[in-house]
Write a structure and sequence with these properties.
CATH topology of the largest domain: Cytochrome p450
Shape: globular
Distance between the termini: 58 Å
Oligomer: single chain
CATH class of the largest domain: Mainly Alpha
Structural class: alpha+beta
Radius of gyration: 23 Å
Number of domains: 2
CATH superfamily of the largest domain: Cytochrome P450
Number of strands: 11
Length: 469
């Protein structure tokens, strides 16, 4: 077994003398032409974990015609996330999102324009907005719970997707879009979600049935958003929401955003605030159901917090430390994105190894979050690992990378945490849940990795009074 030392140099190692360079070791088991693609398709996390066992924090492999390297462990993550964009760049990798977000937006924009577009998002995530969002999250989850009735069965991934679409559309876009969720928007948005898949990553313009549905859905969403914006301009209405913020925004050169740019940015922020949240909400529920003693502590904490607070708000959610640790533990065990990828534009030198230009460089939260020298008993659901004195997530600022890191870290991380805590506080207060069958396997066929479906959960309304007054 290779020495898995995690003490390699960080960025300065990019300047190591050339005489110290050696080739990055290759993962075993590759096929002619296909490389490690068959094994990767069966179980990418098992394959990547095997590579770490063989070679430690840096190794290479091939998927079909493309060469990849994987950086594993906090020091390797630090190098990866701090590498300058003229050496390691995400934009060439994520162009498969262009059919969804649109031209001139996000990864189809110049770095300067992309930075300006990200800057438009900050007001939507400030504390004042998050206070308003807490009330919306409670209201939408309460409505969802009331509609379930006294008992029944739900497909948990479908239910969490439905609920988070309603929350995110109302919080991050506007009330008019939320009002249309059940009359066409949710269906179109679902087709856009299906457009983000493994095949689409490699061949985003391939005319598959899923891609044709994706493109039709994008046109429907553009038509819907465009109609709302036209009505606002006609009526003079200026609601306090993110759509209106973008309608009034200006680039540094004074140019207003076009309707398709606004649509693309709204879809970008919706995906950031919803898609991964729905998956993480599902895993959080499943893990809590499998840990009844911890679930009881979460319920006791909620009773204590809301006996004092009376109603859900930003401060009450921040006081729920046990539930917060459960969400972080699910981020560790079930990161929605198992791979983060960038392209090497100029040769990289790390730990005496040379990574050639043109290589696809990756980090894998799913692999790094289960390293035994970082996390004790790493396969176990154990939220208390984040409590003092262990504080396993504090041992390095890149120990947990479920929401990325560096310049392109997900801006919606705190929104996601707040949303998940609001959802499960309400649902666990209202219902007892029972998982049918064994714990589900991950579905690696989707770019955002949730459980295999159907994933059915039975529920029964609790007889105890609500903790909310």
């Amino acid at each position: 077994m290779a020495n898995r030392s995690h003490s390699a140099a960080t960025l300065p190692s990019a300047e190591l003398p050339r005489r110290a360079e050696t080739a990055v070791p290759a993962l075993s088991g590759g096929w002619p032409l296909l490389g490690n693609l068959p094994e990767f398709q069966r179980d990418p996390v098992a394959m990547l974990s095997r590579g770490w066992q063989e070679h430690g924090e840096l190794y290479r492999f091939r998927l079909g015609p493309r060469d990849f390297v994987l950086f594993t462990g906090p020091e390797a993550h630090d190098f990866y996330f701090r590498a300058p964009e003229d050496r390691l760049n995400a934009q060439p990798v994520y162009r498969f999102t262009v059919p969804i977000f649109g031209r001139g937006v996000a990864y189809d924009a110049s770095p300067e324009i992309m930075a300006e577009q990200l800057g438009f998002l900050f007001p939507a995530l400030r504390e004042a907005a998050m206070r308003k969002f807490a009330l919306i999250m409670f209201d939408e989850t309460k409505r969802f719970a009331e509609a379930l009735g006294a008992d029944g069965e739900i497909d948990l991934p479908h239910a969490m997707n439905e609920l988070t679409v309603k929350i995110a559309s109302r919080c991050l876009i506007g009330q008019e879009v939320r009002d249309r969720v059940d009359t066409g928007f949710a269906e179109a948005y679902h087709e856009l979600q299906n457009g983000i898949n493994t095949l689409g990553f490699f061949l985003p313009r391939l005319p598959t049935a899923a891609h044709r549905r994706r493109d039709r859905a994008r046109r429907r969403v553009a038509q819907l958003f465009g109609g709302i914006m036209a009505e606002r301009r006609r009526s003079g209405a200026e609601p306090d929401d993110f759509m209106q913020t973008l309608m009034q925004a200006r680039y540094k050169d004074g140019r207003a955003l076009g309707d398709d740019e606004i649509t693309g940015i709204l879809l970008t922020v919706l995906f950031a605030g919803q898609h991964t949240s729905a998956v993480l909400a599902t895993w959080t529920g499943l893990e809590l159901l499998g840990a009844p003693s911890y679930l009881a502590r979460v319920r006791d904490e909620a009773e204590e917090v809301y006996r004092e607070a009376g109603a859900m708000n930003l401060e009450s959610l921040q006081q729920q430390a046990l539930l917060d640790r459960a969400v972080r533990e699910c981020e560790r065990l079930h990161p929605p994105l198992i791979l983060l990828i960038r392209k090497v534009l100029k040769p990289l030198r790390y730990g005496g190894r040379l990574v050639p230009a043109g290589t696809m460089a990756m980090v894998s939260p799913a692999v790094s979050h289960r390293l035994p020298h970082l996390f004790a008993d790493p396969e176990r659901f154990f939220p208390d690992r984040f409590a003092p004195p262990a504080c396993e997530d504090k041992q390095h600022h890149y120990a947990l990378i479920g929401f990325g890191g560096g310049k392109h870290a997900c801006m919606g991380k705190h929104f996601a945490y707040q949303q998940l805590k609001a959802i499960w506080t309400v649902l666990l207060d209202r219902f007892e849940f029972f998982l049918d069958g064994g714990f589900p396997r991950p579905n690696y066929g989707s770019w955002v990795t949730g459980p295999e479906t159907p994933c059915r959960v039975r529920y029964r309304r609790r007889s105890e009074p609500s903790v909310f007054r």
